[in-house]
Description:
- The protein is mainly α.
- The chain has one domain.
- The protein is 67% helix and 3% strand.
- It contains 14 helices and three strands.
- The chain has helices at 2-9, 13-34, 41-60, 67-88, 108-126, 132-151, 156-160, 162-172, 177-198, 201-211, 222-233, 263-295, 300-324, 342-360, and strands spanning 90-92, 95-100, 105-106.
- A three-stranded antiparallel beta sheet has the order 1-2-3, sandwiched between helices.
- A hairpin with a 2-residue loop joins strand 1 (90-92) and strand 2.
- The two termini are 22 Å apart.
Amino acid sequence: xxxxxxxxxxxxxxxxxxxxxxxxxxxxxxxxxxxxxxxxxxxxxxxxxxxxxxxxxxxxxxxxxxxxxxxxxxxxxxxxxxxxxxxxxxxxxxxxxxxxxxxxxxxxxxxxxxxxxxxxxxxxxxxxxxxxxxxxxxxxxxxxxxxxxxxxxxxxxxxxxxxxxxxxxxxxxxxxxxxxxxxxxxxxxxxxxxxxxxxxxxxxxxxxxxxxxxxxxxxxxxxxxxxxxxxxxxxxxxxxxxxxxxxxxxxxxxxxxxxxxxxxxxxxxxxxxxxxxxxxxxxxxxxxxxxxxxxxxxxxxxxxxxxxxxxxxxxxxxxxxxxxxxxxxxxxxxxxxxxxxxxxxxxxxxxxxxxxxxxxxxxxxxxxxxxxx
Length: 373
């Protein structure tokens, strides 16, 4: 008991408190987005948040070096899950990326991404003397296989998170910048080919309406235009909690996705610029704390894990908020801890648990306690 108590008191409490605050605000935001429709999404989110926090603490108290043995089996399980999706997957909003497990639906892409980060962290930390082109090629193989399977589901959003995560981890692994710049230029060059030959028609239409939302205002551009209108109408301090005659209440924001993909639109409409800014500052603090944990890691494995997982959360945040304000195309990525999503909430808190484990075990055995050290 004393051993576990030392680990509990040794948590990174600013990070843990921030995660709980975001999770609770997410429940509040989901309720405010759905209360008029007598849906119980917020109740289910509360249950998943509780399960996720238990998982988070369990992972935090376990030395993260278990990843050396567990990453490859989890990665293989993720690939098998992606194969199962193509065989018996459940289609939700045009994406056949879900497995129906009876009591819940689950996206194997989430498992594959987490396992890919763990596997890359092990590889980059163990073979730091390998020539840079070979390190990049092997990391591309680790990410490329599941990325291609995810894109074929089709799930454009989940496939797009791989590149920034890989680039951030390669940079943290001290791969020369000229190689990373080459990767970025190659990715930019491939975009036209992917848009024209690798995407489904509705995904291609999303890209087109991102570039010109007024091109099809009553069709493909409807959601983004209504999102922009809702956020803009919130003004400085918003219309208020459960305000009447909002675009959300009137159904101009699609009720099927307003509680997950477009939760930030509801926040902007109800709480205005101030509410949106506070959310942005909260995630900025999360990224800062995640990178600080990475910096304080006792070894290269922990440092790379911290960078990869923090970049994953940042990418989700940037792309989700970006698509609601017209900065990025609509990709269907949820806002971590705030959007509704059972298995995704658990996956995010699993990632937070690894960050906490890196912090708790930075002194060698979890005996170091407190934020001050």
